[in-house]
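Field: sequence (string)
Field: structure_tokens (string)

Example rows 1 and 2, in order.
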Amino acid sequence: MADGTVNDAPMLSNQHAPKIPLALNRGREAASYLSYIITHYYDLPDYMVFIHGDRYQTHNDDPMFDTLPLVQKLDLDYVDLEGYVNLRCNWKHCPKPYIVPQPGHEDSIWEAHGEYAKAWEFIFPNETLPEKIAAPCCAQFAVNRRTIHRWPVAQYERIRAWMWSREGDLPSMKAGIILEYMWHILFGKPAYWCAPVKPCYCGAWNICDLDCDETKGWCKGRIWTPDPPPSMPSNWPVEGQDGKTWPIEGWEKHT
């Protein structure tokens, strides 16, 4: 977890009694993820789930926005088959490319086209820069040990060193966005990875009876929020299911 525990090895990015503190917390969840991989590279478990710390979040691909079923119901055979599984099937930031890498591009505050190209050159110096980057958000995924071991530990150290070295000139948020749209490539998927949603739900969680619109990357009864999403009620799901302050279509299915 980004600010909780992963198996028995806490990687805490907050101030609550960290057992393995981060030397520098940058890139949102990225520093925690990379530090866990680096620290445990030679004794990783068979399967790992990298998730954020809060249980209920707007980007959780669950009709109740709950992390728990995403982990409890995850089909590890599917993780083993795929190597890497994004814990969001819904096409948030697909199919339109989210990043179009452009060396020398002057990025606005919400863009990362130029900075992504810089990062790619440093992290993958011998690889061709992709023309377009797309994948469902939001940096939560499952991966097996074999897939992580596609790269030597030095590669993960290199990525973390890049992130830390940019502390003075690259906002932490933007470093996190760059890595959010690099994890799937690092772990063996194409740069443009907007997979069909129905097979994704069926494979990842054995939810195979969904009514899906593959052209929009959305299935009835799964996650839906406006863009940008409204603020989640602080005591969700005890309150907020009135369809007014927290509009969720089909939230009652597959809970």
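Row 2 begins here:
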Amino acid sequence: MESPSQAPHSGGSLWKGLLLTASILSDWIQLTSAQSDSVSVVPNPPYGAVGSSITLDIQGSSEQTPSYTWYRGAVSPSNEIAFYQVASGQLTSADSRLNVSSNGSLIIRDLILNDTGDYFVQFLDPTSSKIVTAEGYLAVYGPLSKPTISSTNMAPVENKDNVSLTCQSESQEVTYLVWYINQSSPAGDRIVLSLDNRTLTIINVTREDQGPYECEVQNPVSVNRSDPFTLNITYGPDTPMIVPTEPNYPVGATLELSCSADSNPPAQYTWLINGIQTVFTPQLSIPNVSLNHTGTYTCSASNSVTGLSSSKDISITISEIASKPNITANRTNVTENGTLVFTCSTEHEGIKILWLFNGTSLSLNERQYLSDNDQTLTIQNVTRKDAGSYQCEVWNPISSNRSDPLEVTVNYGPDYILFSPNPVTDEIQVILQTSLTLVCQVESYPPAQYEWRVNGTVNPEFTNNTYVIKNASWEDSGQYTCLAWNNITELSVAKDITISVVAEQSQKGSSLSGGAIAGIVIGVLAAVALIGALIYCLSFRNTGGASEHHHTEHKSSAPNHRPGPS
């Protein structure tokens, strides 16, 4: 399409006059038509950007019309900005940036902010022969300048003050404003935004509210964000922290403590030893400490802006290196059921004492107790299990030392006698012509002394716990007694056992008495005699007279028969 000429044209003036006359004559009728939604002016694109071009299209009209007249602000001769005659392509405009296409669309180049406003177009509807007025709005936006953030309080106090931040922009075309806190959208009950979002208020600020804060302004064609803004929130001091936390030091060491507390502005520090002010720095150093430096050390932190203060205590103990203690006892050799008293001697006052038995920490029972600040150990009703090695150990938080061991012996016994071999009954059988070693076993300390008696008579040959029978004879049968005694405990114990010498022992190895064996022998002989008599009777019946003769001879010889010893 050729560019419409903007030179004056006589035909155009005639049409303009006719349109103006018709507009005046039927003004109220046409205005009613213009308010309808059938025809409208629509910007394309919807928003204009400064320096760019935009087209105002007429929507709702499809009929070709002789001409188009465009107005800005209102439909009046003084507000006319462009007239276009379709047939001739003639354009009359008040601004060289304006152009009208053949379909009546208004084109505006090099947009400026002042182009913003209401736009109207009038044209003759060929169908109804009425003048149609269509209206639309054009919004032109320019690039936004960077906004800035201001605060009502540049140093708010934590949990005390409220703070309001305002986003300020020199641009007037801002359509939307958003806030960011640490790159995230504001959230929480303490955050309040004004209706236009320009002001953000924080209720009862905390140190977590320091930011950074940013505000962003937007319009349809531009976005710009402020520089980060950080609140200088005053707070603290919190409870101080003391390092190191080690509370124990040896005599002669250097005591160094450091105190810190979270605070803004930084806290002022004071050290107190047992309530007395010492230094006014975060660090405390005391060389070559002595026992007198034991006590309570306090770090006090204060903040002159918030008016708050806080403190922390640490208990410091100065101790000597523990020297070796000495252990003694009322006796080192005690009789069972007696009493033992141990004493642990040390040159340190108030030092802790640990008792050991056979190298292991002593667990007290109902017979044992400590006294004199644990320096004395008493054991009542001593038993043989209390014999062993005793030590005491002194210790403090920085060192320990252990005494030399003290050996304790316990005299006891003799106890119950146990024979070996140990028969089920109180009788041991020994086969004739064999040997027997009889051992008398007892528990005793010191070892027991022994005496053996046979049938009540002392046998001086055997003076230890062993009695030996060699080549046992019938005379070795009898009652044997073992007597054991302890010269220290003055206790003794005796036990009897019966020794039976037998001809032989059963296959099962059972121990049978002499009477039982004799009974068995007699029974066997009787059985043999009975069998012989039975054989004789059977033989006599078979031989008849011969048998009788034999019987007569037997009878005649009977008086001369003499039974042998049974």
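free_text_note (row 2): The first strand starts at residue 40 and ends at 44.
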